[in-house]
Design brief:
Length: about 800
């Protein structure tokens, strides 16, 4: 019989004996029952399905060296023995220093002794690898931070700062539950603009039922690399912009991408127009070449700091192979690609060729104009393909599509119902490209593909109904859109053959289902065939065979359980499994149902309490092990099937994104048509002549605001020709001068994005650049008065404007006399 001191040792290795508890009916007090090693089963089956064997040798703790704790002065009680560090198995938590001089309270990670736990070693290594990031380490159901960073994170998140002992020293730490990650990540990344390194833990199953963990940094979260976080605004783009500056030249290269959707653009620009590009693109993060890290006076850095735009530094790796891009543009693309590889690590997407932008195809709108016209960020800033066009063919195509839907109310209503159910394919495909996503995303892909088919069929039905009265011109642009939508029935059928109906699916990933299948909960019946499998058995032969085997095993399990209940007259008997006890027989009413079982030598008691009793039974242990292994194999096959489906979606990413873009165009055209019908917009005429003639034009936003208060907007007629191309508007305060200026510019923008305009009639010459200045302010930081700011902006307009530009100026408190006095 082993000594009493051995019972106090907590070791992760297999124990040679177990202390059991039982209550006798004649005694209310719980008594301890000790068993000999020989009385225990010779083999033990772990929850993972592996069979454990006894250790070849066991070091009795009664013979281990002891360190005696000093007795208190005047105490007559004997001192308690405590194990020294040398008696602990390697890898267990070490004991703190006892007695002697205590180390000084230094919380610095650098002055610590070599860490004695795996967690401490991993944290210190990650802090060295990512010194520019705040490190969040997953520990169970918490994310924790240690050492100096704990002070900063606790302050930023307004959470409690505490400490823990490592190596005999107190180090600061803080943490928060796993469920609060999104909220705190939003605070750190979006509000405080910090880099956050996410260190996740991955279970490692040992040979003796131990569950260790491997921790590694899987991703660095930055403001410009958000993917599918709940706090990401899906109604606007989250652009990451790289800027490559050419030394001693004004040319610069721009490349920007929305990591959450995969939209990728590039352009060559100049330092002079960089401010306009930044306002138009609206990046959440800007990347600059690392050569500017030590610079303090560069104009780009100065502007980014003044506008509070978050920026970081990176270096380009390799050369861009595209010959269609200029050298600065190619360098910007290369730098952006290298940065994504570093931040997203092994999950960085393979970047397609970016869409090349040129000023020759779009109306140029500078930063001041965007702000002066009060164009919302969600609908314009951050947009690219929706910029006003200067192509007659493109504008004509949009206007024809809007006119088509404005005349067909019933078709428009049917398509709107379909469009409401279409998923955001661009984001889903990007999640799959980044090796993320779950089963619900697959179902959304299938549903969206089916909805695309229904949209095509509805358009074809409408065309057949108009067979007699339709004209070729009416359907010309709609037919072009319809032909651009490629059918992906093979992919849809593939997903349909693999997944159950969407109503029967849980929004859980296959990885989560696998974890549920492998992790056995204590005190719950095992193998009730209640696992929610996501892949149909008919998807593949291995999955079908495993489902069949698992069904047979469940049947054997039910038969065994029924037989044991009947044979031993134990109605409360159930077959269970848990991480601590493995496969065991559970008796819920031991006083009544365990009498016959206790007399059978094939049952070995492994635990006992006042209300329950558990036994080891070889037949159930072997059967349960087989079920656990089969369940794990099936979970692995499901994971592999999901990976196969995910790769198939990624392989069709180009077609999926192309279809999504076409459907988006139809959606926008229908929106323009609804707006035109509700607010009485008209189709403008776009001409090459230099004129602007709008009859009874209205400011759309002001008109809607007046309508909500029951008032009517007073329209304005503006006519400008080559012989009268400058108008001066005068009037008292609140007369509507700035409204007319904004209205004139907004109507030009609406006309060249392909929308109808708020007027009775409109003929507008093509405008290549738009400048609007309304209400300048003092620039005290640069020591500039209001008048100086206005003069500088006017000089900039005169330098950049062409004969086809539209300019609207509204000076602030400037009269003729003051102007003459200033000039004199």
């Amino acid at each position: 019989m082993l000594g009493r001191s051995a019972a106090t040792i907590k070791s992760s290795n297999l124990r040679p004996y177990r202390c059991l508890y039982s209550t006798s009916p004649s005694r209310a007090k719980t008594q301890r029952v000790k068993k000999q090693v020989a009385e225990l089963p010779q083999s033990y089956t772990l929850p993972s399905g592996e069979r454990a064997t006894p250790l070849p040798a066991f070091q009795d703790a009664s013979n281990a060296p002891r360190t005696l704790k000093a007795k208190k002065k005047g105490s007559s009680k004997p001192s308690k023995a405590k194990l020294s560090e040398s008696s602990l198995p390697e890898g267990n938590a070490t004991l703190g220093h006892r007695g002697g001089p205590q180390p000084h309270d230094d919380t610095s990670a650098e002055v610590m002794n070599q860490p004695r736990t795996q967690l401490a070693r991993e944290i210190l290594e990650n802090l060295r690898r990512f010194p520019h990031c705040l490190l969040l380490t997953r520990v169970g159901q918490f994310y924790e931070s240690y050492f100096e960073q704990a002070n900063e994170i606790a302050s930023l998140l307004n959470i409690k700062l505490t400490s823990r002992k490592w190596g005999g020293r107190r180090v600061p730490m803080c943490g928060f539950p796993l469920l609060h990650l999104d909220r705190h990540l939003k605070t750190l990344v979006q509000h405080h603009k910090r880099f956050v390194a996410m260190c996740e833990e991955f279970p490692i199953y040992g040979s003796f039922g131990e569950t260790g963990f491997e921790r590694r940094v899987t991703r660095i979260v930055t403001p410009g690399t958000l993917i599918d976080e709940p706090f990401l605004n899906t109604l606007e783009n989250n652009y990451l912009l790289s800027i490559h500056l050419v030394p001693e030249k004004s040319a610069i290269g721009l490349a920007w991408i929305d990591v959450s959707t995969g939209e990728f653009f590039s352009k060559e620009s100049t330092l002079e127009t960089l401010q306009d590009e930044l306002v138009r693109i609206g990046p959440r993060e800007v990347i600059l070449d690392s050569s500017l890290r030590d610079s303090t006076s560069h104009p780009v850095l100065t502007y980014l700091k003044e506008e509070n735009i978050f920026f970081s530094f990176s270096s380009s790796q390799g050369e861009d192979e595209s010959s269609q891009r200029s050298e600065p543009e190619a360098a910007a693309v290369s730098m952006l690609s290298a940065y994504l590889q570093k931040i997203l690590m092994g999950n960085a997407p393979r970047l397609d060729n970016p869409y090349h932008e040129t000023d020759s195809t779009k109306m140029q709108v500078d930063a001041h104009t965007i702000k002066s016209l009060e164009i919302r960020e969600a609908s314009y800033e951050g947009g690219t393909t929706g910029s006003p066009s200067i192509s007659f063919a493109e504008i004509e195509g949009w206007q024809s599509t809007v006119a088509f839907f404005s005349k067909r109310t019933h078709l428009r209503a049917d398509l709107i119902e379909h469009l409401k159910q279409v998923g955001d394919i661009s984001r889903i495909v990007q999640r799959f490209t980044l090796k993320r996503g779950d089963v619900s995303d697959l179902l959304s892909v299938k549903k969206t593909i089916d909805l695309w088919g229904q949209i095509i069929k509805r358009l074809e039905l409408e065309k057949d109904l108009e067979k007699r009265k339709r004209t070729k011109r009416d359907w010309e642009h709609i037919d072009l859109l319809r032909k651009r939508i490629r059918t992906l029935e093979i992919l849809s059928n593939r997903i349909q053959s693999a997944l159950a109906d969407a109503n029967d699916q849980e929004s859980e990933s296959v990885e989560e289902e696998e974890q549920k299948a492998l992790v056995l909960q204590e005190s719950t019946p095992l193998m009730e065939n209640s696992v929610k499998w996501t892949i149909k058995p008919s998807f593949s032969r291995p999955i079908s065979a495993l489902h069949s085997s698992l069904h047979d095993l469940y049947t054997r399990k039910d038969d065994l359980e029924c037989r044991l209940r009947t044979e031993y007259n134990a109605p409360s008997l159930t077959l269970r499994a848990s991480p601590s006890q493995g496969m065991h027989i559970h008796i819920a009413k031991p006083r009544k149902d365990s009498k016959n079982i206790d007399t059978d030598s094939s049952f070995t008691t492994i635990s006992e309490s006042a209300s329950t009793k558990s036994y080891f039974y070889r037949e159930w242990s072997e059967l349960g092990t087989t079920i656990a292994r089969t369940t794990a194999l099936l979970a692995q096959e499901e994971k592999q099937a999901f990976e196969t489906l995910r790769e198939e979606v990624v392989s069709n990413a180009v077609l999926l994104r192309s279809n999504s873009t076409t459907i988006d165009e139809i959606d926008v055209a229908i929106g323009f048509a609804v707006l035109a019908e509700e607010l009485k917009f008209v189709r403008p005429t776009i001409t090459e002549e230099r004129l602007y003639h709008v009859v009874n034009g209205r400011h759309p936003s002001v008109e809607m605001g007046l309508m909500n208060s029951g008032r009517i907007f007073t329209p304005n007629t503006i006519e400008m020709t080559p012989s009268s191309n400058m108008h001066i508007i005068t009037g008292p305060n609140m007369a509507g001068k700035s409204t007319v200026l904004r209205q004139t510019a907004l109507i030009a923008v609406l006309a060249q994005v392909g929308s109808f305009v708020p007027a009775d009639a409109a003929t507008i010459g093509l405008i290549d650049k738009l400048f609007t200045r309304i209400g300048a302010k003092d620039d005290l930081f640069r020591d500039r008065s209001t008048f100086m700011v206005e003069m500088l902006e006017t000089a900039d307009i005169l330098r950049r404007a062409t004969s086809r530009s539209l300019v609207s100026l509204f000076p602030n408190k400037l009269i003729l006399k003051d102007g003459f006095l200033t000039v004199d």
